[in-house]
Amino acid sequence: MYKISLDDVSKTFPDGTKAVKNISLNIKPGEFLVLVGPSGCGKTTLLRMIAGLDHPTEGTIKIGEVDATSMASKDRDLGLVFQNYALFPHMNAFENMAFGLKARRVPKDKIKQKVLPIATRLGLEKLLKRKPNELSGGQRQRVALGRLLARNPSIHLLDEPLSNLDANLRTSMRYQLSELHQEFQRTTLFVTHDQVEAMTLGQRICVMNEGEIMQIGTPSEIYNQPAHRFVAEFFGTPSINVLEGEISDIAGEYCFEHDEQKIIFSSSKTIPEGPVLLGLRPECLHVQIEKSADSWEANLKRIENMGDIRVLHFQIHDQKFTLKSIRNDFITGQSYYIKPEWKEAHWFDSIIGIRISG
């Protein structure tokens, strides 16, 4: 197993677009790291530079202790799985899975010894004679994954491999990918724009936006201690509620003023006075019948029945609030009082969006 080290890596394309900006990142040996962010944030460009398909404009890339910045892709002991599977249409499933081994002139009997157990592991043993156009999307994805596992290089790179699958297949493939990583323990970089894939697969998550790293951490750290407003808003369904307001200190308690409404609360966190952004996740807000000093009056506009929970959409003047609740006795059009769970509140700088407390 190899570690991957990026030191101050940047990529500027000929048209002047700076896709990756001064990124330093260490992927531990045997780690499953998920690179996540919106389309165009630079995550695929970063993966391609690690793969040797693109070369950085600045900075260095090391694989193990070797400088691989200018090394050819074939010399990096890595394998790739792409979004579009990249299967050879004239080859059957077995031939596609065996391609990497055959290219390295592995003897035929050895190829069978490597491919057949992987095919069985992926449920492909009865499909090995079929060509890609005779397979479903999920089956083609498993063949692409099998091609990687049959050669089983030290580094596995996966670029949005589940994005073309339907919801049920994505769920089952996430489970399978997690099991396979536990079994093979290869250094893995998984690129996605999907927060669910990031949270369920990554031992650590690297969040990118506009070519920069916003935060690196475990799924728990990313969700519970987002380093930036962007990270807080990217993770969570429904999205976090963000309010712009101002903090002041009143007799040892805090006052948060938003849209000419003041709310008094206590907090063990140190929150600087002045303009601030308050982030409240839908599961950290509670509905009560009676008003309290640390609650807002809000009108219930819409209820979404998700089966196990209700997603409630409230309006407070021009501000919309989204809550989650297991209760089923709410009535649209009626006023309620919303009380935050203040120990779970997130506070961000009102201008640059970085986390400032908690």
Chain-wise SSE layout:
Elements: E1 4-12, E2 18-27, E3 32-36, H1 43-51, E4 58-63, E5 66-67, E6 78-81, H2 93-103, H3 108-121, H4 137-151, E7 155-159, H5 167-184, E8 187-192, H6 195-201, E9 204-209, E10 212-217, H7 219-224, H8 229-234, E11 241-250, E12 253-258, E13 261-265, E14 274-280, E15 285-288, E16 296-305, E17 310-316, E18 319-325, E19 335-340, E20 346-348, E21 355-357
Parallel strand pairs: 3-8, 3-9, 6-7, 7-8
Antiparallel strand pairs: 1-2, 1-4, 4-5, 9-10, 11-12, 11-14, 12-13, 14-20, 15-19, 16-17, 16-19, 17-18, 20-21
Helix pairs in contact: 2-3, 2-4, 3-4
Low-pLDDT stretches:
none
User: CA-to-CA gap between the ends?
Assistant: 37 Å
Largest sheet: 6 strands, mixed
> In terms of structural class, how would the helical and strand content be classed?
alpha+beta
Tally of discrete structural domains:
2
Radius of gyration: 25 Å
Task: Give the helix level as a range of percent.
Answer: 10-25%
The CATH class of the largest domain turns out to be Alpha Beta
Count the beta strands. 21
From the 3D structure, determine the CATH topology of the largest domain.
Rossmann fold
Overall pLDDT confidence: 93
CATH homologous superfamily descriptor of the largest domain: P-loop containing nucleotide triphosphate hydrolases
Topology as a string of helices (H) and strands (E):
EEEHEEEHHHEHEHEEHHEEEEEEEEEEE
Shape: elongated
Approximate strand percentage: 35-45%
Q: Largest sheet, order of strands side by side?
A: 6-7-8-3-9-10
- The CATH architecture designation of the largest domain is 3-Layer(aba) Sandwich
Number of helices: 8
